[in-house]
Amino acid sequence: MNHSFRLRLALFSALLSGLVLTAFGSTTWWLIRGSRIERMDNDARAEAERETQRTRDAAEWQRTEARMAAETGIRDSRDFLLLVEDGAGNVIYHSSDWPEGLDVTRLLWPPIPAELPSTEPPPRLDSDASGADRPPKPPPPPPQERPELAPPGQPPASRAIEQTVGGRHWHIGLAATEHSRIAVAVDAAAVNSDMKGILSAFLVALPVCLVLIGFGGWTFSGRALHPLRELTAAARRVTAEGLDQRISSHGEDVEFAELIEVFNGMLERLERSFKQAYRFSADAAHELKTPLAILQGQIEQAIHSAEDGSTIQAELTGILDEVRRLSTISSKLLLLSQADAGNLKIHAEPFDLSRALRDLVEDTAMLAPHLLVTGDIQPGLTINADASLLPQVLHNLISNAIKYNVDHGWIRISTALQPKQIEVQVANSSQGIPPAERDRVFDRFFRADPTRSRKVEGVGLGLSVSREIARAHGGDIAFSVDSENVVQFSLFLPANLNSGLTPEMSSAEK
Amino acid sequence: MNVLLVEDEKKIAQFVCAGLREQGFAVDHCDNGTTGFEYACRGGYDVIVLDIMLPGRDGLSILKGLRKAGNVTSVILLTARNELDDRIEGLSLGADDYLAKPFFVEELIARIQAVVRRASGERQNLLVVGDLKLDRFSHEATWRGESVDLTGREFNLIEYLMRSPGRVFTRTQILEHVWGYDFDPSTNVVDVCIQRIRKKIASIGAGAEGESPIESVRGVGYRFRKLA
Fold first, then answer.
1. Among A9, A283, B59, B66, whose Cα sits 20 to 30 Å from the Cα of A250?
2. Above pLDDT 70, what percent of chain A?
């Protein structure tokens, strides 16, 4: 089975791009997700830190919560939690939907920096050391001193932690000063839903991209393979029309231009040697004609001058036969070389096919009295044909039917009218043709009998010439082996439309 | 019958002239196209036999010139070169017939007679030799007043022989005239056809076996019995 290179190219480019896009997309997705989470943590922390500087009542905190949620880009208010405590750990405000499981008493509040925060960095706690089993008791700040020591500018201590409660994963920003502790919690689901949006956008975009890339690959490879198709078409034209076909390499890519040049060069060489070959046989046939004409004419004259029935006259007659044989071969060679050169022209004139076929049946019966010859020929078939070439085709067909027949065999010559063509069928009994040889019956010089015994006359030029002539008439010859013992040649000829002959009329005529 | 032959190949011209004269034709011969055209224009010929490849002016050009000048003398073309192309061009230029080299002089004679018959427009065209009468127009044959049912091939064959009673025709000459150009010379189709004609005439019963109008010439061919 043959695969389309073009299709494979398109599929391969789509597959490769798909893999690259998927890898790129998933990496990007993870990176975006990471940065989103980090930003979320930072936002929560920053909000918490900022709000530690304020003191509000519960109603104000509720409004603040909504504002903060909007600022951090959370659409669903359930995904955002706010907890405000005073320095002593009493809850001033918490979101109405603060989950039960998120134990406010066990939050890992960052330690409050010492009085000299610039020299003493806050002790760090690893965020993963979030063990709820180790509730750190932040040192209770001495409340009596702090108020005056807590100017608005004092930075709060802060940290970000993560906690999973009831299947929800909270990112919590904690900030604390001596007199206020704020926890801002954001549900990771908020990020996840955003990421889901990105993912689904990606999943929609990927197939579209792949289709586009595949289509692009298909189109581009089609364009890239254009010279290849030209080559194929040219090679096909060479088979059909002759070796004079060339392809233009103008405007093609270097790689293809080179191939085209080489191909053209090869065609040129082939054409030249073929031309030489058929010019040689045409020339030989021409050159033979004049001497053959002189020989034939002089022998003819000598036969007539000789005494009737004399030995010399009989001998001259034998020579004349051989001269005729030579003439026949040379005219066949000439015909073939003209067919090869694509020069086989016909002089089409009204031709009485029915009459020619009746003569053919008569000839067949005379040529092969040992065979049963039958004819089924529609009367009144007139076609446009060459009156000197077409009879040769008919004659070739019956001489084959006679040559390759069996003892007490039969030959049937019949016509079949089709809408646009006339089929002349010559069927005969036969010993059968080996399947391997069936394809070669139209080959020049091919003969089914390899021993080339003298019993089977001819030089095997017949069928190939016949087919060339049939094709020059716009028809063809087909060959079929109906069963093991019946061989049929069908000669197709275009029906003469001008004669106005239709199948109905011709049958009515009878 | 006046015939002009324009042919540059001496040996061909020689046997063609001899053959035609033997048939009783008056033959003029030119060996180049230029004088050939002058002779042809002078007129007075029943048929002009033109070779195509000629020194001076070629056959097709002579034909074209004649037709252009309104000369409608029958023309038969002879050629060896580019057979098919020339034939097509010649016929389209108004040649009456075409003969490819190599050819039989007997065949040329038959063609000349046919062309002249066609040109003279004879409708009733009877050929009578002895007891046999042929009507070329209706293709009917009668032997001593009785109709003989001949097929197309048989009629053509006997008509060919009857044209020159007493002259022997070889099988290949007959083959070429009746069956066309490229028949295998070793075929026995001519003998079979002659047998059939003899049988058909004999079956009328008017003549004995020995009286068959077609005589065999051993090793050569056949001839139509010449009246004593």
1. A9
2. 83
* Token digits of residue A76: 């669903």
Q: Which helix (H) or strand (E) holds A503?
A: helix A503-509
What tens digit of pLDDT does each residue of A455-475 get? 444 544 578 778 888 988 889
pTM: 0.62
Is pLDDT above 50 for A146?
no
B168 in contact with A, Cβ within 8 Å: yes
Output the domain CATH number for residue A410: 3.30.565.10
For A:286-345, CB contacts with B below 8 A are 286, 289-290, 292-298, 300-301, 303-304, 308-309, 311, 313-315, 317-318, 320-325, 327-328, 331-332, 334-335, 338, 343-345
Q: Are A445 and A406 in contact (CB under 8 A)?
A: no
Q: Which residue has the higher pLDDT, B160 or A57?
A: B160
Chain A stretch 377-396, residues whose beta carbon is closer than 8 A to a beta carbon of chain B:
388-389, 391-392, 395
CATH architecture of B2-120: 3-Layer(aba) Sandwich (3.40)
Give the separation between CA A137 and CA A142, rounded to whole angstroms.
Answer: 14
Question: Is the confidence metric ipTM above 0.85 for this complex?
Answer: yes
Does B126-224 carry CATH code 1.10.10.10?
A: yes
Q: What is the count of structural domains for chain A? A: 3
Q: List the structure tokens of A123.
A: 């002790």
Asked whether the beta carbons of residue A317 and residue B221 sit closer than 8 angstroms, the reply is yes
Contacts of A300 in chain B (CB under 8 A): 15, 19, 104-106, 170, 173
CA distance B77 to chain A (A): 15
Domain with A95, as residue range(s), is 1-117+154-224
Quick check: is A399 in a domain?
Answer: yes
Query: Which residue does chain A place closest to B104, by CA atoms?
Result: A297
Instruction: Look at B53 and A127; give whichever has higher pLDDT.
Output: B53
Are A54 and A113 members of one domain?
A: yes
